[in-house]
């Protein structure tokens, strides 16, 4: 479904998958695809150049892995304020490092898609 060229082709593929599941007597699976698959195509409303970045959450997952690694090495925190302090310190480090300076999305593509005011 997500490997299609555009949203129209993806919608058609979703319909095909639903029909195949129903033909295989997998009505519950077809119902789940029918109710949830359309939500997953939201990234296709944006410029194609942004699709890969929008449909993944790799940056968030990487940050969560880093926090998990650090909390495991600490073990037990001395008080409830220590956890947010660790997270904020890591966020501050990321923001000030080269990683925090990377541009995640090229906003020029979004500006090009905007209609002109004239």
Characterization of this structure:
The protein has 118 residues and is mainly alpha-helical. The protein is built from 7 helices and no strands.
Q: What's the structural blueprint in terms of helices and strands?
A:
Elements: H1 7-23, H2 27-36, H3 51-54, H4 58-74, H5 82-96, H6 98-101, H7 107-113
Distance between the termini: 38 Å
Q: Helix/strand-derived class?
A: mainly alpha
Relative helix content:
55-70%
Q: Nearest-angstrom radius of gyration?
A: 21 Å
Please tell me the total number of domains: 2
Summary of the model, kept short:
The chain has 118 residues and is mainly alpha-helical.
Comma- or semicolon-separated keywords:
mainly alpha; 7 helices; 63% helix; 2 domains
